[in-house]
Amino acid sequence: IDDLSSSKSKIQSDMKMEQSKLNTLKGTIAQDLTHHGVDELKAMLIQSDDAVNKKADEFDKKQLLYENLMKKIHDSRDNVQRLIARQGALSSERDNYERVAGDRAKLIDRIAKEYNISIPSLGGQMSEHGIVGFREKLMTKRQLMHDDIAELRSVHQKSEDAFQNQLSELVAQMRTKENQSVKAKEEQRAAQTEINRISMQATSSRIRKNDIENAKRRAEEAVTERDKLVNDPRIKSYTQDISKYEIEIDRINRTIEDDNGTLAELRSCSRLQDEVAVLEDQVARDEERLQEIYNDNSFQFGKYGLNATANDLNSLETLANSARDFHKQFMTEKKHADKDFTNKQSECTKARTLLDHTSRQGALKRQQISGLKPAVEQIKNVVAEVRRYQSENFIDDVVSEEVQPEDLLDVIEKSLKECSIEGDQPAMVKKLLKMLKSMSKVKDADGAAIGVVCPCCTRPMNHEETASFKERMDVLVDPERSDILRSIQARTQESTILRRNLERWKGFVLSGLSDWNTFRRLNKERNEMDEAVKRQRQDHTDAENSMKECEKQVKKCSSKLADMEQLLNEATRLRDDATKISELKNDISQKKGRVQYQAPTANGRTLQEVEANIAKLSDEKETLLKSIQGLHKEQVKLNNQIVAANKQATEAEKLLREKETKFARDREASERKIMLQEKIKSLEEEDRKLQSEISPLRQKIMAKETDKDRMRSNAKAEEDEMNEKLTQYSRYVNKFRDLSAQIDNYLGSDKAEDLEKVRSEIKRIEDEIRDTERAGENIEAELEEFKQDLDNSGTRKKLIEGNIQVCEIQENIELLEENNARIQDEIDAISGFETSSQELRDAEAKKLQLEMARSRCEGQLSNLRETTRQLKRKLNTEEYKDIDERHRVRMIEHETTVIAVSDLEKYHRALDKALLRYHGMKITDINKIIRELWLICYKGEDITNIELVSDGGSKASKSYNYRVVMTKGNTPLDMRGRCSAGQRVLAAIVIRLALAETFCLNCGVMALDEPTTNLDYENKNGLAIALAQIIANRASQSNFQLVVITHDEDFVAMLKNELSATAGTSMPERYFHVSREEAEDGKYYSKISALDWDEI
Predict the structure, then answer these.
(1) What's the predicted TM-score (pTM) here?
(2) DSSP string, 509-542
(3) Quick one: which of 405, 459, 581, 911 is 20 to 30 A from 949 by CA?
(4) What is the C-alpha to C-alpha distance for residues 489 and 569, in angstroms, rounded to an integer?
(5) What is the tens place of the pLDDT at every residue in 817-835?
């Protein structure tokens, strides 16, 4: 029903589409020609096509001819436009020539009037020879002006050099006088300082000669008393006793010194011994602590078969290595366990996915099997009917209930063949009876019957037998009387009914055979899938169990690895501690060896024995010292008297010598003071004389400088005036040269003849265009006629083709209506299944969707459970342990960092503003210095000032883009690309000087290499003036140093003159000249010579 309904819907859709096409075509056809028929319309279409093709060929030829004419006209018009453009250009050049000739004539008149130059003319116009002569006069006049300017400069330079020489001589004289004055003042200050020192050294009371005589008498009396005490005999006896005791004491002292040396050695070694004791105590404590640590972990070490001796470094080293090996082994086991767990987890996921897939496939198979059950049930019904037929007809080989459709078809085919044979039995019986009757006749050679025999045994029959045989045969042959024929006819009717049933059964089996095979295949696949589901479910369970076992193994390995890591850390700690203990023991052994080495004089005595011996000797020494002390008391008493007398005599002699020395020094100081006072008076007189000579020289220098500046300004004004005249004259000459060149170029070309040729050519081409246009108009009219004929032919062709399509569509509609009626009859014959079939399909589709949704949900639920278990395991690992607390700490750190970043941003913005403000202040300071230096250095008038401009924005930056801007009046312009090379060099030097003045106050070193490159004379002189002022301003700075490297000797001379003329500065003593000389070995070497400034 579905197939028929689908076919019906498709046919109805096709009918609607064809009907729509038919209606559309009928609406577009102007005339209905369908009564002619399709074949006649096609013949008419062929005739129309032939006529149209012939007219189209003629139209193409005319069209090609017309296009050629249009192309020719277009080309001719292009030529006319090009010639018109050429004509305009030539006319413009002719007009320009006339204008330029007029301008040159006006310029010649103006030059002649302003500069008094004669103009040769003929008839009011200047000839070519006159133009050449006028040009030569112009060149001669400009050369004369150049010579006048050069001569004026030479005169000004000589005058300035003379002024400069006079000024230099005056400055040199003033500098000499000032240096002499300074030297005199320095000598005066030195003399005054010495007078002050002499005055400070003088005593308040002077020594008289009577004081010296009294001191001499008291000294002689003290010496007499001292000599008397010195010659007392007790001194000798005291000395002998003391000497004997001292010899004994010396012996004891030597012994004590030796013992003290030994004691010092032992005491120095005692420090080592103390250190050894401290180290041994530390070693004991460390070994005890090491033993405690080992005892605390011995159980864990023994758990893994790790044993060692606590105080044995090698044993602990072996213990650490073994623990490290165990750690590597457990690490490997954990990696393998993790790998196995990952593999098992992957296998479990794969098993679950495969199980879900197989379950979904099984559900799909069951759904497909449910859809095939009607066809299978129909075949089973056929099997039941066949079995019932065979049972009713007592057929021995009855088909089984589980018979296959192929075998059932064989049985049905066999039954059909049998039915066919039975259907042919009546005729065959009649034929057989006739044959038997014929066989019973015996014939002679001529064919005549001569007797009757039995057809079976060929026995001859008598007359009665023959009559009975014929009668019986006639009965058997007669359908009305023959029982055999009636029985056979009844069986034939049954066979016909059976054949129809067999054909119907065969049709059912054949129609359902494919579904049966599909059902059997799907049923088999479903059973296999059920088995596979059971097997895969078991595999999934086994995989989950294996995964759990692997998970337990991973936990076990992780626990063992953690224990072993702890043991490895402890073993490493024990080994490191044992290593330190071993190092301490080695240190103790070395210190003990040093003790034996540093105390070789102890002879085996200990520090206590040496100290006891020293104490004994000290007691003996003390006894002797007491004896000597008694003698010394007497001797001291006597010596005190001698010392007092000696002291008294010495002091008297000393006082005598001091008074004599002081008396002589006072006399010399008085004489030196008188001499210095006389020298100061003479120096003051000399300084007054020098100052009186310097003042007139300074006035002369100022007057000379004023005269020099006035002379410079006057000379500059004269030179500027002459230069302005020369510049104006050069502009006239250049303009005359340009105008003459334009006129010569026009006269040298044949532009006038070309203009006439172009005009005649334009006229000829325009005539040709008019003739061609007339021919094209005629052809265009013919083409319009051809187009109208072709359009009519095309309309006729479209009319015929439309009628042909209408006929074909009508035939298709009739055929579709017939098919639709036939399908509707078939649908009507199968009524009553629409609702049930549709509900069944909807229910099966919904069931399939629900089963698939359930499978998806089960798979997602399994994955979510597995993910939950993994996340729970991960939360128990070390990485996520106490994750909430760690997250809280990190959040606190994050928020603190955010606050700190916010504060730093505020500070950064404040610092940014301060840096920007500082940068602006510095740029302002630099530009101020640049402005002052530029006014001094640059002598031109085209640039008023230059300054640095920064392209930075509103924020400070690590780097800025700077550009140099020059101004003329109030108009700023970028200096790049708008200034000469000399201006660029001067600007670079001025900017560097300003940068040094701003940033190099604490390191005032400045070097200029070839600063006069590309500078003219005025700017070089301005640079020299600026450098001289910088030197004068920074002369008081102790760390200022200027280095100038140049090949320009004129610049050096300018710098010398400006330095000598600048007040407040001193000339450098020398300058250095670098040259190259050839040595004896043939090589060239640099030579640096220090030369005096006067040699310039």
Answers:
(1) 0.29
(2) HHHHHHHHHHHHHHHHHHHHHHHHHHHHHHHHHH
(3) 911
(4) 113
(5) 777 777 777 666 665 545 6
